[in-house]
Design brief:
With 243 residues, the protein is an alpha+beta fold. The protein is built from six helices and twelve strands.
Length: 243
């Protein structure tokens, strides 16, 4: 099922895998090149459809989101296809990896935790533009964090990982809220945790604020606590705005 037109080759021999560059709960990401497109570097996300814990609907939703997005701050998928029992997603290569990866490497090099203020401001501005596009399309990302903000060598910043994204549009009408419990605890808004009145796109704004703190300090608030402790503290404690 090609996503950027039939000119993108949709077979494994046209984009041979070179090396693993990422590992997630449901997929492995490899670096590759596509000779048919001028040997352009690409990232290929390979998902094992037989052993994946996620539902097919979740997979379909992630592919659909990438397929429909057209914004410089949203990761693009060039094409996708099925090979044996695997789903291959051929995506833009963001060779610097995630902001989390960059901060981890910088810390190992003795550069301290977090990012310089000018870097942080630029990354947040670019990410916010991508998030606005997301919301304008009637969607909620629901997992905004440094690990899902990708960078390349030209200074491009792109939001990624749409596996838990959700629509606020139903049968052509924009819904006001949703109640699905998804996301990562440290970045999750209280209304998502509480599951009382539902939540809307403002849950992403909360996560964006937590991400700003994460980029500034090198880690998210409550990052050193167990997930259940994070849920309780987020719901019960007053919001503090200072770093």
């Amino acid at each position: 099922m090609p996503m950027e037109g039939a000119d993108w080759p949709s077979s494994v021999d046209q984009s041979p895998l070179e090396k693993k560059i990422g590992q997630g709960a449901f997929a492995t990401v490899y670096k590759a090149h596509c000779p048919a497109k001028g040997n352009i570097p690409v990232a290929i996300k390979v998902m094992d459809l037989e052993n994946i814990n996620s539902s097919f609907e979740d997979i379909r939703q992630e592919v659909q989101m990438m397929r429909m997005s057209d914004h410089p701050n949203i990761l693009r998928c060039y094409c996708s296809f099925v090979h044996e029992c695997q789903l291959w997603l051929v995506m833009q290569m963001m060779e610097k990896g995630s902001c989390l990866h960059v901060m981890t490497q910088a810390k190992r090099m003795g550069m301290g935790e977090g990012m310089r203020e000018d870097w942080l401001a630029y990354i947040l501005r670019e990410s916010l533009q991508g998030l606005k596009y997301f919301h304008d399309q009637g969607q909620i990302h629901r997992d905004v964090k440094a690990g899902n903000i990708l960078l390349d060598g030209q200074g491009n910043v792109r939001l990624a990982d749409f596996g838990v994204s959700g629509w606020l549009i139903n049968s052509g009408d924009r819904r006001q809220t949703t109640k699905t419990f998804v996301g990562t605890p440290c970045w999750m808004a209280p209304e998502v945790m509480e599951q009382i009145d539902g939540y809307d796109y403002k849950a992403d704004i909360w996560s964006f604020g937590i991400t700003a703190l994460e980029l500034a300090k090198g880690y998210a608030p409550y990052a050193h606590f167990a997930p259940m402790k994070v849920l309780i503290m987020t719901i019960q404690q007053e919001v503090r705005t200072g770093l």
